[in-house]
Amino acid sequence: MREHAAGTGAGVLGRRARGFARRRWRSPVARAFLKNRGAGIGAAIIAAWVLVALFAPAVAPYDPLAVVGPSRHRPTGDFLLGTDLLGRDVLSRILVGSRISLVIGLISVGIGLVAGTAMGLPSGYHGGRVDALVMRLIDAMLAFPGLLLALVIIAALGPGLANVMIAVGISSVPLYARLVRGACLTVREAEYVQAARCLGNSDLRVMLRHILPNLGGPLIVLSTLQVGSAILVGSALSYLGMGAQPPTPEWGLMTAEGRAYLGGAWWISTFAGFAIFSAVIGMNLVGDGLRAALDPRGRGR
Questions:
Q1: Rounded to whole angstroms, how far apart are CA atoms 75 and 274?
Q2: DSSP state letters, the chain
Q3: Cis upstream peptide for 247 (omega within 30°)
Q4: Residues paired with 86 in a beta bridge
Q5: In sequence order, what are the residues at sequence separation of 6 or more whose Cβ sits closer than 8 angstroms to the Cβ of residue 207?
Q6: What per-residue confidence (pLDDT) applies to 18?
Q7: Beta carbons of 107 and 161 less than 8 angstroms apart
Q8: Are the beta carbons of 112 and 150 closer than 8 angstroms?
Q9: d(C-alpha 52, C-alpha 97), whole Å
Q10: First-to-last CA distance in the chain?
Q11: Are the C-beta atoms of 286 and 224 separated by less than 8 Å?
């Protein structure tokens, strides 16, 4: 009897878990995202790069830092994407470099998200002098294009991957601050926020527990789009010599190393550039799919 009861209980729990999973996948947002062909392609591209980054040392045919063949060797069976100026395998360097580029994108977005939210929430919630002070600072940052602002920060901090992440993250702070401020200006007048204030909740608790969770959708969409932008800007900084330094297998640096040999050894820069393109376009497709899925007006299209 006990075994039968245990089996029955496990079966009930299993059916509940499957039912919960089916309900999640049947949600309007999930259905709209899965029906978006571009979002599916982008998700497949990003999933492929994530798997490559996770298992790069195991799948790379050669050591990315070792000289394994003649200089500027054409793509062949031994070197599928050829070799670079020093005879290092281009495929191995691209596979291992995916880790660096994805980490740059994720950490940079994390810095921008945390700092921008920390500035935008009190600005939109309190208004007045706090809002004026924060917005003047944001306006000053927006006076510089994103890449130029990142270059200024790198020039002050010095070249290096860690400084690239900081620079790219700071350059994206205004986007998050303005988004959070604008959303907070609307949400702070909602009835549930007024009720939370009347119950004696502190301003910090109201912002973190009642306002911030309702900004999740726009922040997720912006962060997804910004990962692609961060990868692109990080690669541009490395291309200019301000980011990753040799012999680091970073996509932007690899593109720069082969730019003088495009006529005779086109594969050195071309394949690294294509890796940047595919990762950025994949993130943009996923971000556009999430934006359309989270917009109730666009789900029925």
A1: 16
A2: -HHHHHHHHHHHHHHHHHHHHHHHHTSHHHHHHHH-HHHHHHHHHHHHHHHHHHTHHHH-SS-TTS--S-TTPPP-SSSTT-B-TTS-BHHHHHHHHHHHHHHHHHHHHHHHHHHHHHHHHHHHHH-HHHHHHHHHHHHHHHTS-HHHHHHHHHHHH-SSHHHHHHHHHHHTHHHHHHHHHHHHHHHTTSHHHHHHHHTT--HHHIIIIIIGGGGHHHHHHHHHHHHHHHHHHHHHHHHTTSSS-TT---HHHHHHHTGGGTTT-THHHHHHHHHHHHHHHHHHHHHHHHHHHH-GGGTT-
A3: yes
A4: none
A5: 121, 122, 125, 184
A6: 52
A7: no
A8: no
A9: 10
A10: 54
A11: yes
Domain 36-298 sits in CATH at 1.10.3720.10
pTM over 0.90: no
| Whole-angstrom Cα Rg for the chain | 24
Answer for the pair 93, 254: CB distance below 8 angstroms, yes or no.
yes
Spatial neighbors of 96 by CB under 8 A, at least 6 apart, are 56, 57, 60, 64, 249
| 152-170 pLDDT per residue, tens | 999 899 999 999 999 999 9
d(CA 294, CA 273): 32
Cβ-based burial of 27 (10 A; exposed 0-12, middle 13-18, buried ≥19): exposed
pLDDT at position 297, please?
60
| pLDDT < 70 regions, the chain | 1-26, 296-301
Look up tokens 């204030």; give the residue: 197
Specify the residue for token string 């949400």: 187
